[in-house]
């Protein structure tokens, strides 16, 4: 489709405490990927908890597919997940506890990703 946006960045800040808000970045991200557009989800604050192995396994908001399903589909379809290193450290999540496909980043990378994006969303 002509005129489609080339790159989306979705900044997620909610974790297991709010299943719906934790899931929405991946619902939207999968929609973006279905339109053959690049998409990166950046996990900050409480959302970094979602990067830990097993964390998404039991998060399921009403009327939304389980978070694990959404995350797996997102990664399988070429989505990128970036996680804030200070936020991970604050929650004692080391790189050895992250799901495959999550890249640890600093604030500088978040700024670069956002500046390069055609659209930036925040949840």
Describe this structure in words.
By secondary structure, the chain is of the alpha/beta class. The protein is 34% helix and 20% strand. It has helices at residues 19-34, 67-76, 85-90, 107-116; strands at residues 7-12, 38-43, 80-84, 102-105, 119-122. α1 packs parallel to α2 (67-76). The protein starts with 6 loop residues before the first strand and ends with a strand. The model has no long low-confidence stretch (mean pLDDT 95).
List the helices and strands and how they pair.
Layout: E1 7-12, H1 19-34, E2 38-43, H2 67-76, E3 80-84, H3 85-90, E4 102-105, H4 107-116, E5 119-122
Parallel strand pairs: 1-2, 1-5, 2-3, 3-4
Helix pairs in contact: 1-2
Short description:
With 123 residues, the chain is an alpha/beta fold.
Principal-axis shape: globular
Q: If you consult CATH, what is the topology?
A: Hypothetical Protein Ychn, Chain: A
Structural class of the helices, strands and pairings? alpha/beta
Question: Which architecture does the CATH hierarchy give at level 2?
Answer: 3-Layer(aba) Sandwich
Mean pLDDT: 95
In total, the number of domains comes to 1
Question: Going by CATH, what is the homologous superfamily?
Answer: DsrEFH-like
Rg calc: 13 Å
> What percent of the residues sit in helical stretches (DSSP H or I)?
25-40%
Order of helices and strands: EHEHEHEHE
What are the low-pLDDT stretches, counting only 5+ consecutive residues below 50? none
Task: Enumerate the strands of the largest sheet in spatial order, edge to edge or round the barrel.
Answer: 4-3-2-1-5
CATH top-level class = Alpha Beta
The beta-strand count equals 5
Major sheet details: 5 strands, parallel
């Amino acid at each position: 489709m002509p005129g489609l946006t080339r790159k989306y960045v979705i900044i997620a800040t909610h974790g297991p405490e709010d299943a719906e808000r934790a899931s929405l970045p991946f619902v939207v991200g999968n929609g973006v990927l279905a339109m053959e557009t690049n998409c990166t989800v950046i996990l900050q604050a409480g959302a970094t908890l979602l990067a830990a192995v097993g964390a998404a396994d039991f998060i399921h908001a009403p009327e939304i597919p389980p978070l694990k399903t959404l995350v797996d589909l997102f990664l399988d379809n070429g989505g990128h997940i970036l996680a804030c290193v200070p936020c991970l450290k604050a929650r004692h999540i080391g790189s050895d506890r992250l799901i495959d496909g999550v890249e640890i980043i600093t604030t500088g990378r978040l700024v670069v990703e956002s500046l390069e994006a055609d659209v930036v969303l925040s949840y």
